[in-house]
Every structure is written in C-alpha cells, then in structure tokens.
Amino acid sequence: MTPLQLRRAREALASFAIETPSWGFADTGTRFGKFFQDAAAIDLGDKLADAGHVHALTGCCPTVAVHVLWDFKPGEDPKAVARLARRHGVRIGAINPNLFQDQCYKWGSFGHNDPAVRAHALQHCVDSVAIGQAVGSEYLSLWFADGINYPGQGSIRERKRNFEAALRALHGKLGPKQTMLVEYKPFEPAFYATDVADWGMALLLAKKAGPRAKVLVDTGHHYVAQNIEQIVAWLLDEDMLGGFHFNDRRYADDDLTLGSIDPYQVFRIFHEIHAFAHDRGRRPKIAYMIDQSHNEKPKIEATIQTVVMAQELYVKAALVDHDALHRAQARNNVVDAELILKRAFFTDVAPALAAWRKANRLPADPLSEHRNSGYERRAAVDRRRRRQELGIKPGGGYA
Ligand SMILES: [Mn+2]
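Above: inputs. Below: predicted complex with manganese (II) ion.
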C-alpha cells in the first residue's frame, strides 16, 4: 500500500463503527424451529456481555441494537438497561419495536384495517420512542411484516394510506435527537403484497412521515438480481439513506454472515458511500448495523467474522482512486474504470488493519483472541446451568 492508501485506510477505520444486534447472540432459528447452543445468550444481560466482548476485541462495535419485545420485560427500567450496557462497555443503539408477534397483528399493524389495532401498534412504537430517549438511542428502526397473502384480500391503497397516517403520527412523537428508519422487504411473511415492499415505497413513506424519517437498507431484503449499490447511490443523492442492516444471502432473506456469499457486492455498496463522501467533501451520517441470524455458527464467532469482514471491505472501498475513476469515466474508458474498482477490491488491507489495531491497543486477530480467551467455554458452562435452572428446553419458535 502507498502512503496515501495507508492514510485513507487509517481515516476509514477511524470513522467506521458497526452496530451488533442483541438477537444475533441469542438462539434464533428458521421458521421450522431452532437448535440451541450452550453458549448462546439467554437474556439481555448475556447479550450485552457478549456485545461488550466483541467490542473489546474489535474496537468498532460501541452500540447494540435491541428488540423491545425480546429484550425489555414489561415495566423494565430503561435507564437500568443503559447502565448495564455501560458496565459491559457498550451503549444501547437502535430500538426495534416488535409489530409482528402479538396475535392482534394477524392482519397487520400500521396497515391493519381495524383502527384499534393500528392505535395499539402506534402506542407500542411511542413506548419504544420513550425507551430510546431514556437510553440515549438515536434510532428507532421500523420493520413491518404487514401485507396480504392473496389477491383481493385487502385494499392495497387503503393499507398504504393507513401506513402514511401512522408513520406521520409516530414521527411527531420522536425526540429531538431521534431518527426513524423505515425498512422494506419484498416478501415474507406476506407473499402476495407486502405493504412496504421496496426502497421506493420506503422512500415515499419516509418523505411523507417527516424530515427525520430515512430509509433503512437491509441487504438481504432484495430480489436476487437487484442492484443494491444503485439503490444506495440514489438514496444518498436524495439524502434519504439512514442506515443498513448488513447480512448476506444466496436465495432470499437468508441472514448469512456478511460477505460469505458475495463480498464484492458489499464492497460496491461501500464504494458508493466513499464516492459520495469524496464528491461532497463530507461523510454521510449512516447507521451501519448487522441483522443476522446465526443458526449454525457460534454466535460470537459469527459476529466477529462479520465485523472484521465489514471493516476490511469498508477499507478496501476507501482505497478506490476517485480522481482516476473520474478521469476514466470522462473518457468512457470502461475497462480502466472497472479495473480501478477491482484494484482496490484486491488490495491486501491486512497491514492497514494490523497497524490500526496496534495503535488502538486491540488484539491483532480478534477471532483467535476470542477463541483463546475461554469466553465461549465459560459462557457455555454458565448458561447451560442457568437454562436447566430456568427449565428452558430446546426447540420452540423462531427467537
Ligand atoms: Mn433487517
């Protein structure tokens, strides 16, 4: 790497943080069931401990996303949760309301045809806003399972208008430092018409909700051939890109670890962000978050693997020679333009990462450090015993 590339890599690493999801440390599964791991987190205390451990090893995961229904018991003091997070060296990040598990959501939440259910869903989100304010969280992250499964089942336009009204009402409840992220997904669990099915719908709803509503791009929530980096570029240009849920996929919303299938796609997404920053002279404010389900890999190893992969690809994308790329584009030199991206993608960034870790007194290899630390073994012993005491048996639903 040239001195200029080393400087770019250093700046990229200094500016990059990625949020871990509390649910990534717990036993999750497929819709067919789940298989328990002894070391998987049982409660929020375990999840925050695991997240703190990952942050201590990687130095770039200072916040943890939480899921209100899965992580907060009714009446739980959010300030106590914030203190617990601090004890583990992390902060509470995005608050994710749960609008899909209660029986009342059978026909939807914000899109439901019954105003009483819409009001119930809105109240849950307003409660989530209050939790966010109490813990100092910047983001309310919204994903809706709403939709219909059969043609004719509901009025698509009426459901759209219900969404517009509920999101606008919710935007009015945000604290001054809170941003609302609207996530989209083409299908599942609704299989005919999902209410917020793509980035255009999310963009339109966010624009109508208010100035602090932005779009959240979950990389797994696209059709196979869709060009995600183009969506990212458009959202950046509209100042409407709020954040990411990173994961990888082969078929649908597979929730595989980032870059396990297609690291070049992640690189191309990061390239659009670095290119935007280069052209505008400022880095856009984006919440980088992980949304994965670690069903087979050990949870903490999968998280560390993802974080390190994200750092590597973010740095590689920062090495693109933007001036040379502009020159190649001006000449319509397709081959050179593509090679400029490829050259950055294939650059070995290990020395830059090693130097950054050393300067920040972090382990040279976070994964080996974790494996040698005995953390996993201790967690397995402790959590196996607690599971027995609590009478938790293997099996059960998704999360
Ligand atoms: Mn997601």
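Residues 26 and 40 are 5 Å apart (CA to CA).
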